[in-house]
Amino acid sequence: MNEFSKKEIIDILNDESQNEWLFALADKIRKENVGDEVHLRGLIEFSNICKCQCKYCGLRSPNKNLDRYRILPDEIILYAKKAVDMGYKTIVLQSGEDEFYTKDTMCNIINKIKEMDVALTLSIGEKSYEEYKAFKDVGADRYLIRIETTDKNLYKKMHPNMDFDNRLRCLKDLKKLGYEVGTGCLVGLPEQTVESLADDILFFKEINADMVGIGPFISHPDTPLKDAKNGNFTLALKVMALTRILLKNINIPATTAMETLNPNGRIIALQSGANVVMPNVTSTEYRAKYEIYPNKICINENPSQCRGCIEGKIKSIGRSISKDYGFRKK
Ligand code: 5AD
Ligand code: FES
């Protein structure tokens, strides 16, 4: 019963009377397959400089209203060290597509962080096979690159100067190199259909993603989509729950975008299939500037406040914080 067809997925997404059952089933499958532990990943958003022009994203290069920053390698390594000292077992390095960080620069950073007894995830965009290989060779464990949408026409509209097939090539290269691979989609992009969301979910299954991050689209005032309507929290949650039901043992984050639309969004997500949270571990000065979308949470907090906050919330629902690296359960 957990092998849904495309038609069944579409019917579930369209039928609001199914929601409670769906979230409960996803929660049960999460518990049976990955248990009650929540994996915390320490997120370092190290540069908001980006050469891309994704229509929905506040970091897009044409946005002149954003105060741009780059955290230099030594400081990135320092944030990683502090996060490891706080108990994080995974560090995630995320940035815009910023060519300042060359292959060698990234390899140096990865090398230093991997001396710290921690798993390392990269989320730095589309690179060549050679670059992905170099990062893997120095110890990177995982890579996040969302497909964003599998609807090729919509993908083209949303990503000027980008190529859907190159995105697929990246995912394929990363799998081949032995990374744990994360992908995901936005829910509620203008003109996105429920049919295409069903295709997104089946795509995650087809490529056997190890991690899937799903969040609602949130309209940013300094982008071409400033007048578009926000995505729907519940629909994003349903896409996430269906992903859990189909992919069982993968890692699924309760995304920050979910909490931006609902003050209890991450906890609701953790009770509807998610088993990962990615708290920010950089200092407060950078947080507001990594403005992918407006009203991001945690922009006035520091790393220890976020750690304390999320630990308290997780424990309040009877779940625990994992002490291991949190690779995909076999
Ligand atoms: N609303 C929600 N999510 C967004 N992202 C980018 N812009 C937005 C937005 N306006 C997501 C993309 C990207 C991830 C880092 O942030 O899916 O992969
Ligand atoms: Fe940052 Fe709650 S996780 S304030």
Explained architecture:
It is a single chain. With 330 residues, this protein is an alpha/beta fold. The chain has a single domain (6-321), classed as TIM Barrel (Alpha-Beta Barrel). Helix content is 42%, strand content 13%. It is built from 13 helices and nine strands. The chain has helices at residues 6-14, 19-34, 73-86, 103-114, 129-137, 152-158, 164-176, 194-206, 233-247, 256-261, 265-270, 284-287, 303-316, and strands at residues 37-40, 42-47, 90-95, 119-123, 142-144, 180-187, 211-216, 276-277, 320-321. The protein has a six-stranded parallel beta sheet with strand order 2-3-4-5-6-7. Helix 5 (129-137) links the parallel strand 4 and strand 5 (142-144). Helix 2 crosses helix 9 (233-247) and helix 3 (73-86) runs parallel beside helix 4. The longest helix is centred in the first third of the chain and has 16 residues, at 19-34. The model has no long low-confidence stretch (mean pLDDT 98). Bound molecules: 5'-deoxyadenosine and FE2/S2 (inorganic) cluster. The site of 5'-deoxyadenosine (5AD) has 12 residues, from loops.
Brief summary of the model shown:
By secondary structure, the protein is an alpha/beta fold. It has 13 helices and nine strands. The protein has a single domain (6-321), classed as Alpha-Beta Barrel (TIM Barrel).
